[in-house]
Amino acid sequence: MFEFLKPKPKTAIPTFAPLGIDIHCHMLPGVDDGSKSNEESLACLKVMRDAGFEKVICTPHYQYPRFPNVESDIQNRYDSMLLDFTSLNAQNIPQMIGVAGEYRVDSGFSDRIKNNQFLLVGGKYLLTEFSLHQQVIGLDQVMFDLQMKNYEIILAHPERYPYYSSASSKLQHLKDMGVYFQVNILSLIGFYGEGPRRKAFEMIEKGWVEFLGTDMHNTLYAQALIDATHDRKIIKLIEKHQFLNSQVGSKEPIKTNKI
User: How far is it, in rounded angstroms, from Cα 155 to Cα 163?
Assistant: First the structure.
């Protein structure tokens, strides 16, 4: 009775269509703390498509010892997932355009640099992350070593590192070194707390942020992404600022004001 009085559940609107490509998500099932099954991935991917993303790059964690993933195995799992999606007749999802990684700068990272042991976003860009609990020791040397090997570096969700403020001289130093920043869309609605939300907006307004990403993990994140598509402040932000997501995968170099 009175079913018509119940609010209808929200559905995503294509707020993020100007981005085109999501360069950071955990939709490869069973390899990290992201999706646990093809069915969960498909449910999330449908929301991402409704939110405006036409293409997606999977970026599973590489983090020792918690997620000791190996690139060859990840590639095989990704290929198998695509075959499974075909057999399931998956529809209304973004085009899957590759698998890369979100690489934690940890104790084994120097060996990865030495051996060029990375899967790159769009075949060009190395998506990195730091610990959420403590600063990286010797960070300048790590970044220098990467750049000496001509890696284009993207730092995932700088707004989430509690030891960096939005005015951090260390973040400014990374920008001066030419590191790209990728903010999580869900930070903009306070999904990780008020601190990351505030810092995310401040970094974008400072012109520090080249990329936005969903960092999609599961259906809880998908529901939050639906909410983000209806957020007026986020809608205005997307209209005001130009991000570089859509240029990933292009044969042309990314155009930016990078120092």
Answer: 15
Which residue has tokens 């730091």? Answer: 130
Structure confidence by residue, pLDDT tens digits, 40-49 = 999 999 999 9
Question: Coil, helix or strand for 186?
Answer: helix
Contact 165, 195 (CB under 8 A): no
The pLDDT tens digits for 111-139 are 999 999 999 999 999 999 999 999 999 99
Extract the tokens encoding 109: 């990272």
CA gap 136, 218 in Å, rounded: 28
**Contacting residues for 258 by C-beta, under 8 A, at least 6 apart:** 178, 180, 210
Sheet containing strand 211-213, strands side by side: 61-62, 102-104, 125-129, 152-156, 180-184, 211-213
Give the helix, strand, coil percentages of the chain, each rounded to 5: 40, 15, 45
CATH topology of domain 17-247: TIM Barrel (3.20.20)
The three-state secondary structure class of 234 is helix
Answer whether 0.90 is exceeded by the pTM.
Answer: yes
Identify the CA nearest to 105 among candidates 125, 78, 132. Answer: 132
Beta bridge partner(s), residue 129: 104
pLDDT band, very low/low/confident/very high, at 256 (cuts 50, 70, 90):
very low
Q: How far apart are CA 61 and CA 26, in angstroms?
A: 8
